[in-house]
Amino acid sequence: MKEITVKSSIDYKINIGTRIRFNIYEFIKEFNYNKIAVITDENVAKYYLEDVVNGLTPFIQVVTYNLPSGEKIKDISWFERLQQFLLNEQLDRHSAVIALGGGVVGDLSGFVASTYMRGIGFVQVPTTLLAHDSSIGGKVAINLGSIKNIIGHFYPPQAVIYDLDTLSTLSEQEFRSGLAEVIKHSLIGDAHLYEQLITKQELSVKDQSFEKILHRSIDVKRVIVEADELELGKRKFLNFGHTLGHAIESVYQSKNITHGEAVMVGILFDLFVSDLENGERQGMLSGGLITWLTNIGYKLALSEWRVNQLLQLMLKDKKNEKQLIALVLLRDYEQPYVKHFSPKEVKNLLEAFAKYMGQYSNVKYLV
Ligand SMILES: NC(=O)c1ccc[n+]([C@@H]2O[C@H](COP(=O)([O-])OP(=O)(O)OC[C@H]3O[C@@H](n4cnc5c(N)ncnc54)[C@H](O)[C@@H]3O)[C@@H](O)[C@H]2O)c1
Ligand SMILES: O=C(O)C(=O)C[C@@H](O)[C@H](O)[C@H](O)COP(=O)(O)O
Ligand SMILES: [Zn+2]
């Protein structure tokens, strides 16, 4: 068991261990909730809902809600249904929502908890690798049409309970999605971790070393959100890869690509632009990195670059200022900064990046 404290507007503990989903009550009893709504999705429910509920019901009243799985539920209609559910079940200001699942369940349930009766208790029980990122830091949100996370809050959980055993049922695609955020954290905040990652021919949650990798990745996030909870400055660095990543996720939403897969392409784009800004032709975005990512299963090419659509979405990014598009770039490993570009400049950069990626014949198509 490892316990990490995050110091923010409220301090909370991230409890990381195995089999801890069975006794969640131990980690939340100090809050004296009178009722709990466990919100999850259909896939997670199949594997883990009973384990969680059985551990809670001897001590506290529990109601449950199973959502369909997938990004589509991060919207206003599911937000409304959940609010109605909490009201029908008579949760009050002494009650709490437990988000049992990945980032989608966490973002939606957290936003619901943050707004119901102007905010009730909120606990994250992440079950994806990606959720080592999403369950920490308090960003909760829903989408508006294809604009990601545009309606939301900073609402830190009162506790995070991360049972690593749940990761064993993730598909390879979902594992890679979460790994993209690990790679992001390593590039912006832990060069040593990055070096360690790119020497591995295989990565798996079953590896003994993986837990350490996860702790280090969480630590990069913790340090940044502790320093800038509300994203007034350096928290923007956690958006490395996301200006383009979010746009790809939305433009190609019908193509079954995950958040992390889209962000991985966005990370390569930000590395490409960083190298240009640093005046290096082959700097951080090297053939070696592309080959490593391809070998561990990432698909990094787009068969059809819908540049204008991507640009329209990038123009709605929350980091932008005065209609200039913000990209998070690296002066070097661990040295992120934000630079703004005109839409025309970004268009040219996207076209140059598409051409650059086109030279790698071993790269596979994401869409
Ligand atoms: N709030 C934040 O700081 C933050 C950070 C990163 C990403 N996000 C958001 O998180 C979302 C992506 O999160 P995600 O990748 O966890 O997606 P997700 O919640 O949709 O989970 C991915 C898939 O895996 C299934 N699943 C979850 N746990 C499982 C398990 N243990 N075994 C088998 N299947 C399981 C889910 O049902 C779903 O089909 C995006 O909406 C993204 O914008 C938020
Ligand atoms: O915690 C953060 O800050 C992040 O940016 C983490 C990202 O991985 C995550 O995808 C986040 O939801 C993006 O936030 P947004 O503010 O760009 O919507
Ligand atoms: Zn992300």
Automatic annotation (TrEMBL):
Binding-site list for Zn(2+): E181, H242, H259
Compartment(s) where it occurs, according to its Swiss-Prot or TrEMBL record: Cytoplasm
Pathway(s) of this molecule: Metabolic intermediate biosynthesis; chorismate biosynthesis; chorismate from D-erythrose 4-phosphate and phosphoenolpyruvate: step 2/7
Protein function: Catalyzes the conversion of 3-deoxy-D-arabino-heptulosonate 7-phosphate (DAHP) to dehydroquinate (DHQ).
Swiss-Prot/TrEMBL cofactor(s): NAD(+); Co(2+); Zn(2+)
Source species, domain of life: Bacteria
Residues at which NAD(+) binds: 69-74, 103-107, 127-128, 139, 148, 166-169
InterPro entries xref list: Dehydroquinate_synthase (IPR050071), DHQ_synth_AroB (IPR016037), DHQ_synth_fam (IPR030963), DHQS/DOIS_N (IPR030960), DHQS_C (IPR056179)
The entry's keywords: Amino-acid biosynthesis, Aromatic amino acid biosynthesis, Cobalt, Cytoplasm, Lyase, Metal-binding, NAD, Nucleotide-binding, Zinc
Catalytic reaction list: 7-phospho-2-dehydro-3-deoxy-D-arabino-heptonate = 3-dehydroquinate + phosphate
Family to which the UniProt record says this protein belongs: Belongs to the sugar phosphate cyclases superfamily. Dehydroquinate synthase family.
Enzyme Commission number(s) of this protein: 4.2.3.4
Co-factor: note: Binds 1 divalent metal cation per subunit. Can use either Co(2+) or Zn(2+).
Domain 3-dehydroquinate synthase N-terminal: 65-176
SUPFAM superfamilies xrefs: Dehydroquinate synthase-like
Protein source organism: Alkalibacillus silvisoli
Protein name: 3-dehydroquinate synthase
Class of enzymatic activity (EC top level): lyase
Domain 3-dehydroquinate synthase C-terminal stretches: 178-320
